[in-house]
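Protocol step 6 of 9: fold each sequence in the batch and record its C-alpha cells directly after the sequence line. For illustration, a two-sequence batch is reproduced in full.

Sequence one:
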Amino acid sequence: MAYYNPQMQQVFVQNPNLPAYPPTVPGIQGFPQPFITQPIITHPILAQPVIPVRQVQLRPALVADLDAMIDSSDLAQRDITKYYKYKVLDKWLYGDMAFLLKYLKVSNGQVVLVKTKKEYEANDVSKDSSDVIEKKADYIETNILTNDNVRMVLKRTLSELMIKWYELPNRENLVHDVLEGFIRKELKKHLTEQ
C-alpha cells in the first residue's frame, strides 16, 4: 500500500512484512522502518508520474527457516503420515507389496491370519477377487497400519538415519521398504513354523 504526501513530494510505501505504524526516526539503529520513502519521478516520454520500484530487504529476524518449521510441525507430520499410509493401502499393496496379502485369508466372510507356513505358501492371492483384496487391505489398515504405527515407524527411521520429514518425498523407496518390512514383521508374528 502506498501513500502520497503532496507537501514532501514523496510516496510512502507500506512494507507488508512489518506492522502498520508511523515511520520511526530514520538513522536510529535497531528500530524497524515500516515505510520506505521514494520520490515521484515524471516519466520523460509519457509525462506521467512514476513510482520507482525498489527491492526491500527483509530483516534477518523476519526470515524463518521454513524447513525446520515443517519438520517440527505436528500438522505436517500427520499429513505426511496419512499420505504414506494411504499410498501403501491404495497403491503399493496392489503392486509391489501384493505378496503381503498371502499372510491373510478370508473364511466365512472374515479376514483371518494364516497360521502356518504351509498355509502361507498354499495361499494364492492371484485368484483373489477385488472384494477379497479390499477386505484384506481394510484388515491391514485397521489392525496393522494405523496412523500411530505409521508415524512411529517413520519417526524411528528418520531419527536413525538423521533425515528430516521434508526429505521423505525424495526418499520414497526408503519409505516403501521400511513400511513393507513393518507390515511383514507384524504379519509374521502369528505364523508358526509348521
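Sequence two, same batch, same settings:
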Amino acid sequence: MEFIARDCGITVESLEMRLYRERRRNGIKETSLKLAAVSLISDEAKRVKNQLRADLKVEMDGIGADRVKAELDGETIAFVSTSKPKFKWIVTNERKFVEWVMDNCVDELVTSVRESSREAILDRFNYVDELVIDPNGEVVEWLIGDTAEPYLVTKFQGEGRDKLREAIVGRAIEAAKVLELE
C-alpha cells in the first residue's frame, strides 16, 4: 500500500481513508439497490396478493366456502378463511356524542372523548329494531352502526411458512411467476 500511496503522491493514511470511503460508498449503493429491489418486490407482492384475494373470494363465494386449504406436494401448509365481519359504531354527530358522554361518562372527557375510551363507550349501545339505544334505554339519533367487509386471512400451519419459503428458494415455486413479473 505504501508503494501505491507514494506513486499517487499521497500518504498511506490518506489512501486508506479514500479506500474506506469507496468501500462505504459501494456498500451504500449496494444496500440502496437491494432496498429498491425489495421495495419493488413488496409493491408487486401487495398488488398480486390483493388480486389473488379478490379472485379467491369470488371462487369461494361461488361454491359457498368460507375456508380452503393451501397445499404443497399434497401437504396442507395453510388455510385461507373468510374473517368474521367486525361491527363498529359510527358517530354521525360528534357534538351530540360529546354531550351524551358529558352526561353519562364525564370522567372520560378531556375536550373530546378520549380515543382510548371511545370504543368501550360505544360498545355500550345497542340496536333495537332500527333504533340506537344508549345504556340508559334512551334513543340516540347521532349514532349508526356499520359492519366491516369480511376479508381473507392466511394462517400458516406448523412448518408451513418455512416449507413454502424452501419451495420458493429451491425454485419449486417461481417467485417471478407468482409476482407476475414475467
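Proceed to step 7 once all outputs are recorded. Observation for sequence two: The chain has a mean pLDDT of 84.
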